[in-house]
Design goal:
Layout: H1 11-20, H2 26-43, E1 47-53, E2 57-64, E3 67-70, H3 82-92, H4 96-104, E4 112-113, H5 114-117, E5 127-129, E6 137-141, H6 145-154, H7 160-166, E7 171-176, E8 181-182, E9 188-190, E10 197-198, E11 201-208, E12 212-221, E13 223-224, H8 225-230, H9 235-239, E14 245-253, E15 264-271, E16 274-282, H10 290-298, E17 308-313, E18 328-333, E19 337-345
Helix pairs in contact: 1-2, 3-4, 6-7
Length: about 350
C-alpha cells in the first residue's frame, strides 16, 4: 500500500533536503534550512509522531512529507509527549498547530527519513512508537451499511444489528485500556479461542476538553467475530484482550483534517508477500456524525481527555477470512497515514 496519506514535499523541497546532507558550508545549510522550514509551515498540516532513537531515547516529531522533524531537540520539556503538548496548548488558549508552528522554525538538526522510522521496533534502530498511551479507548459499532449487513449475517440472534443501525442511540462500547493498545509495526493479536478474527479499519478521533474532537489517528479495532457472532453479549470478549487495538502512525490535529467525513480508507492484509484481503471505504458513508458519536460517548460519562474513540468500519472481509500468525495488516487513511501491524496468535 503506497503511503499516499503522507503528501510528499515538493520537488524543490526534496532537493534542499538532499543538499542539507551534503558537505555545503554551515552558513549555506542554515539558509537552506530556513527555506525548507518556510515550506513546511506553508503546508499547515500537522502530524505528530513519537519515535525512539538509540542514544537519544524517545522523541516527538512533526511529519513533513517524507521526513520527520525532531521537535524534542527544540524544547525537551515541551515536546516530551503529545498529551503534554495538547495540555499546554489548551492552558495557553491556542491550538496545537499554533503552538508547534511557533517553535518549528528553531529546528537546527537534520530531519529523519519517515520510511527509516516505519520499521519493526528494536532497541538498535530508530523506529516509530504508539503516539501515546490513551487512558481509555472506546468503540462505535454498526455505523456503516456494510458492517450492518455483515454483522446481521454472522449473528445467531437476528435483528439486533438492524435495530441499532436505525436507532436514534448509537452502539458505544468500551474497547481497550492503553496497555492493550499497540503502535506502528507492533503485533496485533488473535485470541487463543477464536477461529475467525478480522481487522476493522477505522477513523479514530481523540477526545479533548469540552468535550471536543482535537485530533485523529488510524485505528484497528481487531475483533474475534466468531465469538461476537455466537452471542452479542459476548462482545467484550470479542473486543477486549491483549493486542486488540492498534493506533497510529501519527496524531493529526483536527485543524489539519478539514473534512473528516470525506476520507478514503484502505485496508490490505499481506500473507507470505501476497494480498490475502483488500478493501476500501470512505468516511462519507458513516451513518452518524462524529459530533453525535462524541455526544453519546460523553453523555453522563466522564471520559478522560486524551481518550480515543473508534468510529466503526466500512471494510468487512468475507466470511471465510481470518487473520493468521505472520500476516501483515496495513490500514491507510487519507491525510493521516498508513498503520502497519504484524499478526500474532495467542
Amino acid at each position: 500500500m503506497p503511503d499516499l496519506p503522507f503528501p510528499s514535499v515538493p520537488s524543490f523541497g526534496k532537493t534542499i533536503a538532499i543538499h542539507l546532507s551534503s558537505t555545503l558550508p554551515a552558513q549555506t545549510k542554515a539558509r537552506l534550512k530556513n527555506i525548507l522550514n518556510a515550506e513546511v509551515r506553508r503546508r499547515v498540516i500537522l502530524r505528530l509522531v513519537r519515535f525512539y532513537v538509540p542514544g537519544k531515547a524517545v522523541r516527538i516529531g512533526s511529519v513533513q512529507g517524507d521526513r520527520v522533524i525532531d521537535l524534542t531537540s527544540i524544547d525537551r520539556r515541551l515536546f516530551s509527549s503529545i498529551p503534554r503538548i495538547i495540555k499546554l496548548a489548551d492552558s495557553k488558549g491556542v491550538s496545537v498547530d499554533a503552538l508547534v508552528e511557533g517553535k518549528i522554525s528553531r529546528v537546527d538538526t537534520d530531519p529523519y527519513e519517515y520510511a527509516a522510522l516505519d520499521r519493526a521496533p528494536t532497541g538498535a534502530e530508530p523506529h516509530l512508537l504508539l503516539p501515546y498511551r490513551p487512558p481509555e479507548v472506546w468503540g462505535c459499532g454498526i455505523t456503516y451499511e456494510g458492517s450492518r449487513k455483515a454483522r446481521e449475517g454472522e449473528t445467531v440472534i437476528k435483528g439486533a444489528y438492524d435495530m441499532v443501525y436505525e436507532a436514534q442511540r448509537p452502539e458505544v462500547f468500551f474497547k481497550a485500556t492503553g496497555e492493550r493498545c499497540v503502535g506502528p509495526n507492533e503485533a496485533i493479536c488473535v485470541r487463543s479461542d477464536s477461529k475467525s478474527t478480522v481487522p476493522e479499519s477505522e477513523l479514530a478521533f481523540v477526545v479533548g476538553p469540552g468535550p471536543s474532537i482535537i485530533g485523529f489517528m488510524v485505528g484497528n479495532d481487531v475483533t474475534a467475530r466468531d465469538i461476537e457472532g455466537e452471542n452479542p453479549l459476548y462482545l467484550p470478549q470479542a473486543k477486549i484482550y491483549r493486542g486488540c487495538c492498534a493506533l497510529g502512525p501519527a496524531f493529526v490535529t483536527s485543524e489539519s483534517v478539514k473534512q473528516p467525513r470525506s476520507l478514503r480508507v484502505e485496508c490490505r492484509v499481506l500473507r507470505r508477500g501476497q494480498t490475502a484481503f483488500g478493501g476500501e471505504a470512505n468516511t462519507s458513508r458513516l451513518r452518524r456524525s462524529l459530533e453525535e458519536l462524541l455526544e453519546y460517548l460523553c453523555r453522563d460519562n466522564p471520559v478522560p481527555a486524551g481518550s480515543v474513540c473508534l468510529t466503526g468500519t466500512g471494510i468487512v472481509p468475507p466470511a471465510d477470512f481470518t487473520l493468521c500468525e505472520g500476516d501483515l495488516v496495513e490500514i491507510g487513511i487519507e491525510g493521516i497515514g498508513v498503520l502497519r501491524n504484524p499478526v500474532r496468535q495467542l
